[in-house]
Amino acid sequence: MPINRVAPATLAAALAAATLVSADVKFTSAWRSSEAGTVSFAGKKIAALVISQDDSLRVPGEEAIVRELHARGLQSVATYRIAPKEEMQSADRAKVWFERANVEGVLAIRPVSRDTRTTYSSTMWTSPYYSSFWGYYGYGWGTPYVVGGVARDTVVVVETTIYSIPRNMLLWAAVSETRNPKTLQAFVDELVKESVKELHKQGLARGIPK
Questions:
Q1: Were 79 and a residue from 49, 61, 122, 141 both cysteine, which residue would form a disulfide, CB within 3.0 to 4.6 Å?
Q2: SS3 of 18, please?
Q3: pLDDT tens per residue, range 70-115
């Protein structure tokens, strides 16, 4: 099934409305720069950035990153506190604000897509609708719903990156999937927690106890 790309506001609304099982963040791919081992943010300021036009996602997301970084002994500031929102839309204008705030690194989270996936259980294939061709034929032209036979999961795809500002360099990047986020806040908190863990794993917080 192709990924359905959605506007940030639509994505946030979908997350807030989801009421299925709890979220589970899974990193599906990751990349690390060969120079990441030469960088440490210990004692330096990291900007928390959520790339979204929706403040209901951006503001609590950035505050969650700040809390998690502070809990791990790292200095951090939410990007929305650095500069007006409109200034963040331009790289040239935003650069001035980041430099003025003496930011050394950025942990950025960007929602990419929301995908609804359908899983068929064994009860579907052994049901009377599927056991014979003519039974399936009549069913296929009617309603496609079988109680207990189909599960539909909401999968949210998010991109997480860590940058060095002085070097203007990507240090680490990953794509994660979260299945059936229960609430927007729970989704953000879990994603942030896992992302900050990765920052430590990559050695970008050397000198700070885990």
A1: 49
A2: coil
A3: 888 889 999 999 989 888 888 888 889 999 999 999 998 888 877 7
Structural domain spans, the chain: 8-114+156-201
Check residue 76 and give left, alpha or beta (phi > 0: left; psi -120 to 50: alpha): beta
Overall pTM surpassing 0.85 (yes/no): no
- Could you tell me which of 5, 50, 2 has the C-alpha nearest to residue 156? 5
User: Is CATH 3.30.450.40 the right assignment for the domain spanning 8-114+156-201?
Assistant: no
Q: Read off the tokens for 6.
A: 């959605």
- Please return the burial class of 26, using the count of CB atoms within 10 Å of its CB with bins 0-12, 13-18 and 19+: exposed
pLDDT of residue 81: 95
d(CA 3, CA 156): 10
The closest alpha carbon to 190, from 17, 23, 42, belongs to 23
For the chain, strand residue ranges (E) read: 25-32, 45-50, 75-78, 103-120, 150-164, 169-179
